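pinging the channel bc i need a second pair of eyes. not urgent but kinda urgent?? the chain im working w is below, pasted from the shared doc
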Amino acid sequence: MAFYSILYEKGKREKNEDTVAIHKFTTIDGEVIMALVCDGCGGMDMGECASGYMTECIEDWFYSDLPDKVRRGTGRRGMARDLKNLIFRAHEEIRRYGAGLGKQLGTTLTLFISVNSRYLILQSGDSAAYSISKRSGCLTAKHAKGGRLTRCIGSGKYNAPSLTLGKIRAGSAFLLVSDGMCHTLEGRDYSGALMPQKIKDADAASRGLRTLADAAMRRGETDNISAVYLHF
């Protein structure tokens, strides 16, 4: 990874229920990167608790379990299975915690893991991941129907996150966003603000993210807006 940039925008909400994170470690075989966006469900209680807890669980796994898996040559599907088990446990823990308080908690998840030149994305909910190019494309499914989430961590029946696998090419870029960024924006907006050939450093990426957030709010977005931009 050449550089990255993060946007964390409260928008017009009283508080920010999103959580963003980016971490990396280096092995003798190359770099391992984790980035995520979790969006606490605004229609439920304590969304920031659900998104924060899910993030902490994945951060712990990234540093405690993943280095050994990389060392042993575990493939991406094996990593994804391990992560899905972890996410299921977090779902049950959040659900039980909420039940004990008489509340409902939930969060979406968009998780990016790369090992050298290959990546996996796990997606649950209506946040999203994009590949940024002249024709930016969405890499994830939208788990929502009729304004309601069909997959959500911590609330309702558990449905495993969807999995996307791909290869990273030099000069490519990826964007993870909460639904506040993708409700009113589309691929051409991301391409215009974050074209990899024009983004030379983290400051330029930050300006591009700010441009996108301002555009979303001008178009009527009132939700929290969070994003992680990765440039390779």
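so The chain is about 35% helix and 30% strand. and Helices lie at 47-64, 66-71, 76-101, 179-182, 187-194, 202-218. — does that match what u expected or am i reading it wrong
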